Amino acid sequence: MMNTLKRVKIILALYNFLNKNKLRYQEALYEKFQIRKKYYNLISSKDFPPDTIIDHPWLDQQNSVINLIHNEDFKKLPVKLQLSILEWSSNGFAIFKSYFNEEKVERINEILKELLNKNKLYLKANRKIMHAIRYSEELKNLVNAPELLKVLNLIMGTEMELFQSVNFLKGSEDPPHSDFIHMSTFPYGYLIAVWIALEDINSDNGPLYYYPGSHKLPYIMNEDYITSGHKWWGYNNKQAYSKKIESVIIENRCEKKVFLASKGDLLIWHANMLHGGSKVNDLSLSRKSMVLHYYGKNSIRYHEITGRPALQY
Hints:
Layout: H1 2-5, H2 9-18, H3 27-32, H4 58-61, H5 64-67, H6 72-75, H7 79-85, H8 88-91, E1 93-96, H9 102-117, E2 128-130, H10 137-143, H11 146-156, E3 160-168, E4 184-186, E5 191-197, E6 208-210, H12 238-251, E7 257-259, E8 266-270, E9 275-277, E10 289-296, E11 300-303, E12 308-309
Antiparallel strand pairs: 1-8, 2-3, 3-10, 4-11, 5-8, 5-10, 6-7, 6-9, 11-12
Helix pairs in contact: 9-10
Protein name: Phytanoyl-CoA dioxygenase
Organism: Anditalea andensis
InterPro entries: Phytyl_CoA_dOase-like
């Protein structure tokens, strides 16, 4: 029922209007980019000026191997992290091995369990536990470490802001997708994700998979796969989107990699890098993990599929 209501555009528009104080942060950005809509109206890529005339994140435009080595902030990083992000421009991801120690990971798991037991969080049908960082300042501070944020700011070339967390107790089994279709920005690309292994991952509990270099493919927007709809009724387009992504992977011969992570490992990925969750072969196994999503502070934030602007909490 709720999913059906989310597709009724007039309900979405009313919801935005009632929450416009949480959207007011975008008002100056709409003016900056000459968006001819109210900041609380529904919005999509069709409402923006041509993306080709707008700046993208600096390492999307330049070669990280050449440019990072001359960057003063890069030089201050531990050598292990330098090597991890050096080929960001070509790979679209970075792996930080054992970045979070055992004590920190266990405390993250403990806090999540406490929040679930107190019914402050709940497990959704799609195996997701949403927005845990909104219910625990300690959890938010643990995962959003200043040292990590500095690396993300360096990669993106601008100040990034944590806005969402997603936890999993089991493997997601998500089909391949780009985060950008769900957490969209203008200018394009000002989103970055950090995936944290909260236990050891193996081939049976549904490991994450990804497609190196797929971030360089064109962004898939609504008009690239939607063929029907109505002025007041949104699109039931998950299957259409998945089929489009499948064809993109085949046409571009994208190579699939599986991430068999150890507890405390981090996988950081580009807004447009295709990824998903492998099949869970043993349903008795858990696959505890956490994903953090960061937006660029100076970008318009919205949901391309439904047209909802992103609320700021």
